[in-house]
Specification:
Blueprint (H helix, E strand, L loop, with lengths): L4 H16 L1 H9 L3 H8 L4 H8 L4 H9 L3 H10 L2 H10 L2 H8 L4 H9 L8 H4 L6 E3 L4 H9 L9 E5 L5 E6 L12 H4 L12 H11 L3 E5 L5 E6 L12 H6 L1
Parallel strand pairs: 1-2
Antiparallel strand pairs: 2-3, 4-5
Length: 250
């Protein structure tokens, strides 16, 4: 462990920089040598690493990710924006891809390989893989303890429930957890929800949010294996029509 006070200060300043201005921090870090970047961010929390690598130039981000411990690298890759993660995947040599495959969920690897084919207006283009998922046999108390360890701003509106194969079975709204017996299994208290496919267009998904009365929808593949989530805020906003007066004055 490096006990140099100046090094510790540099790490703290880097963390603050990433938190406040992730894009600017990513640009600044990308100008450094890879080993220098690792010295500054290698020991930071995974959420901070994700914030730094999301806007970074893919070749540089891939070089940094390769220098992280394998499990940490897999966690960060799985929580990046899908389009960015897919770009990094293409930068990796086949032997490193095989190492990642030994840890990552097969469905996620398949998603990365297909992501380049998602149209700009599709679910897959804007979906997120940063979500909380538990198995049907997980106890409610275990889920609550897991959520307690998350930063408040990372607390999800809902948790997703899957079986051992990763197939989506339902959801649990975080606000409802307080009403459940902590010894109950998540599979016994979950609610049903619709899911969407990554190749669906945003225009098709818009009505689903309204029907389900939710701000978040799970994204699955054809086998109903959970891939990620899409938020209502990711939907394109319609440009308001100009008034008759504005049309005359522009």
């Amino acid at each position: 462990m490096n006990n140099n006070p100046m090094h510790a200060l540099a790490i703290l300043m880097t963390e603050k920089f990433i938190t406040a201005e992730p894009k600017a921090a990513a640009t600044a870090l990308a100008s450094l040598a890879t080993h220098e970047v690792i010295l500054l961010i290698g020991g930071l929390k995974a959420q901070t690493l994700v914030a730094a690598l999301n806007p970074m130039d893919p070749p540089k981000a891939a070089a940094v990710l390769r220098r992280l411990p394998l499990k940490q690298a897999c966690y960060v890759l799985a929580h990046l924006e899908v389009t960015q993660a897919a770009k990094l995947w293409k930068e990796f040599a086949t032997p490193y891809q095989e190492r990642l495959k030994s840890v990552l969920e097969p469905a996620f690897v398949e998603l990365l390989q297909e992501a380049s084919g998602f149209e700009p207006g599709s679910v897959g283009h804007v979906m997120q893989t940063d979500f909380v998922a538990v198995r049907t046999e997980t106890k409610v108390g275990e889920l609550i303890n897991r959520l307690k360890n998350l930063p408040r701003k990372k607390l999800p509106l809902m948790c997703l429930v899957t079986d051992k194969s990763g197939e989506l079975k339902g959801i649990i709204r975080t606000a409802e957890l307080a009403f459940f017996n902590q010894q109950s299994l998540c599979g016994s208290v979950m609610s049903q929800t619709r899911s969407v496919l990554p190749d669906m267009s945003m225009s098709v998904v818009m009505p689903v949010f309204q029907t389900e009365e939710t701000d978040i929808l799970p994204v699955t593949n054809q086998e109903h294996v959970l891939l990620g989530i899409i938020e209502r805020s990711s939907l394109p906003t319609q440009t308001p029509k100009k008034s008759f007066w504005k049309k005359l004055t522009h």
